[in-house]
Structures are given as C-alpha cells and as structure tokens.
Amino acid sequence: MIGFAIRRLAQAVVVMFVVALLAFTLFRFVGDPVNQMVGVETSLEQREALRESLGLNDPMPVQFARFISNAVRFDFGTSYQFRQPVSDLFAKRIPATLELSFTSALFALLAGVPMGVYAGLNRESALSKFFLSVSLIGISLPTFLIGILLIFVFSVNLQWLPSFGRGETVQIGDWWTTGFLTVSGLKALVLPSITLGLYQMTLIMRLIRAEMLEVIRTDYIKFAKARGLPDRLVHFRHALKNTLVPVITITGLQLGSIIAFATITETVFQWPGMGLMFLQAVQNVDIPIMSAYLLLTAFLFVAINFIVDILYFLIDPRLRAGRT
C-alpha cells in the first residue's frame, strides 16, 4: 500500500512539474508582462527598470526556479487587470467554484446511481427507456444550451429560480463564503448545478446500467439466486457492490472535470467563481490569472486522481493480491 502510494505520488509530482513548465511558458512568452503593466507613456528606462525589478532579465532556469518556488507558496504575482495579488482573487472565488462543483457531483451521484440500477434491473420497462432518453439529451446537448433552456423555462417563464448570480451568502471565517445557509443562495445553486452535473449524471447512469447488466449474468449471482436469497439482497449487496469500482474511478475523474471545465456554466449563469474570472482574464490577456488557473486546476486533478487510485486499491482486492 505504501509503495503504491509513493509511486502514484511520484507520478503526480512529474505531472505537476510539466504543468508548471507550461504555465511558465505561458507567463513568459505570451505577450510581454511589462507592456501589460505600464502605459504607452512609460519611457524605455522605466520599462527596463521594471523588467530588472521583476527578474525578467535573469536566465530562464533562474526564472523557472523562482516561478516554482512562488507557486509552491501560492504566490502567482499580481493581476494586470485587477491590480491585486492573484492568490487573494482566487481565495475569494474558490468557495463559489467548489460549492457549485461538489453540488453538481452530488446531484450526479444521487440521481445517476439509482437511475442506472433501475435501468439495469428493469431494462424493458417504460421508465428505463425514459431514463435512457434523458441520458441521450444530457450527452448530446452542449452545456451552454442546457443552461439557456433551463433559464428560459424556470427563470423567464415560470419565474421560480434566479437566472444569474450566487444569491445571498454567509461569511465563514476570514475568506470562506457559502450560499448553503440562505434561501436565495440555495435557489441560485439549483440551475447551474443541474446544468453542470447533467452530463456526469448520464455518464454514471449508463455506466451503472452496463455494469449491472454484466454482473447479473455472472455465475455467482445465479448461484446466490439459486440459494433462495431475496432479490434485494442479491441486487444491492452482491451485484451493486461489484459495480462500484469503475464508478468510483469515473466519478473521481469527472469531479476533476467539473471543477476544471465549469467555465461555461459560470459564464452562462454569471456565477462568481474561478471559471468566470479565467474567461475574463483571457479576454484581457491577464497572464498571471491564466497561469494560476492552469496550475490550480491541474493540482485539483492530480489530487483527486491520487485519492481515487488509493480508494481503487483499497476496494478492489485483485489489486492487492496482484501486488502481493
């Protein structure tokens, strides 16, 4: 177990090093940072002095080492657009993105697993076919179109839910804010979380259905039924348990995807998270925010994948037997 974790951790360090190299290249070669920080009236002497103070005249290995050292301390420089430290800007936006992402993942699990189990055990029923039709919609339609349709139905026509913003939030600690403790915050969370989690829900549902159809045809399930065990015990204790290993893997990967690719949903609903700030940074060529977003999303991906690998090793006894 310890050796497995060490190997995965070493792979994670290599991945983060490569991502840091890409982020540094983006920071260094996509436009001149000095031109983004000063105006046209700045003299050449002032520009050169600024370049010297920023360390842009140092050799590339020295700049890259400084960049990694600052990133480890969550120091990503100063935003060109907001004139504030990037770490402070992300600290204000991270709660909104994580709140939306985890709510979407929870929706995908709570809806996708029961639907997949039912569709696998009752594949000829009308409700099962309805679930499959819903999954086709979730996979086929792009995220922004789903968000616009939900806004048109539930915000414009029915006027049940807000169409943009995060609603009222409650301050917890120095920098964490949450909308879970207010009515308007919960209402504002419904539409974007469904929009962001619909694709993941359909993916989990189809995966559970396929695994259930395969497992219920195995010999040990037939033997359990021949012993006279109740169908509920056979389906949920024996069959469902053996379908959860790939589901955990896919769910972990999709959680990272939700966090990384929430930009479209946050833009449609004007959700004040990291994704919306990243798109604004792209429009204004704000390189520090862009490189910091790349590093943070890669770190979240690597951390989630590491946890999923450990859970996969703990749940699947075949991996432990193979290592032994």
Tell me about this structure:
- This protein has 324 residues and is mainly alpha-helical.
- 76% of the residues lie in helices and 2% in strands.
- Strands 1-2 form a two-stranded antiparallel sheet.
- Strand 1 and strand 2 form a beta hairpin.
- Helix 12 (274-283) packs antiparallel against helix 13.
- The longest helix is centred in the first third of the chain and has 36 residues, at 86-121.
Task: Give the secondary structure arrangement, pairings included.
Elements: H1 2-29, H2 33-37, H3 44-54, H4 60-72, H5 86-121, H6 126-140, H7 143-157, E1 170-172, E2 176-178, H8 183-215, H9 219-226, H10 231-260, H11 263-268, H12 274-283, H13 287-315, H14 317-323
Antiparallel strand pairs: 1-2
Helix pairs in contact: 1-13, 5-6, 5-8, 5-10, 6-8, 7-8, 8-10, 10-13, 12-13
| Spatial sequence of strands, sheet with the most strands | 1-2
- Mean pLDDT comes to 80
The fraction of residues assigned to DSSP E strands is under 5%
What's the Cα radius of gyration?
A: 24 Å
Helices and strands, in order, run as HHHHHHHEEHHHHHHH
TL;DR?
This protein has 324 residues and is an all-alpha fold. The protein has helices spanning 2-29, 33-37, 44-54, 60-72, 86-121, 126-140, 143-157, 183-215, 219-226, 231-260, 263-268, 274-283, 287-315, 317-323, and strands spanning 170-172, 176-178.
Which key features would you list for this structure?
two-stranded antiparallel sheet; 324 residues; 2% strand; mainly alpha
